[in-house]
Amino acid sequence: MAGEPLISIIDDDQAMRSALVRLIRSLGYVARGFASAEEFIEAGVMSGCSCVITDIQMPGMSGIHLTRLIAERQSEVPVILITARTEPGLEDVALASGAVAFFRKPIDTTAFVECLEMAIRA
């Protein structure tokens, strides 16, 4: 699958991470999961990503912090933020960090796939 878009999924929840990796692969993309933002950064794949999907709340670096870091280093890599958190204003903070989209868990799969495909094509 060399040359195919690489989609990185960062979520400390193993079940969610695995489900997203399976979904992305079922669409024909190369998907790689990471248990933390730090693991993703250490892997050195950021510049080769076509899209990053990350949870907001994780031990260590948050998804919002990671999104800001990506914007500083690789502004062309779109980031989709996901969360189970429900507090008001979180979506505004997430989008202000540089994310192209924000989804609450459980994720609407149809809307998520449409968003992912638009982000990759942009």
TrEMBL record:
GO terms for biological process: phosphorelay signal transduction system. PANTHER family: CHEMOTAXIS TWO-COMPONENT RESPONSE REGULATOR (PTHR44591:SF25), STRESS RESPONSE REGULATOR PROTEIN 1 (PTHR44591). InterPro entries: Bact_response_regulator, CheY-like_superfamily, Sig_transdc_resp-reg_receiver. Keywords: Phosphoprotein. Transmembrane segments: none annotated. This is Response regulator receiver domain-containing protein. The modification 4-aspartylphosphate is found at D55.
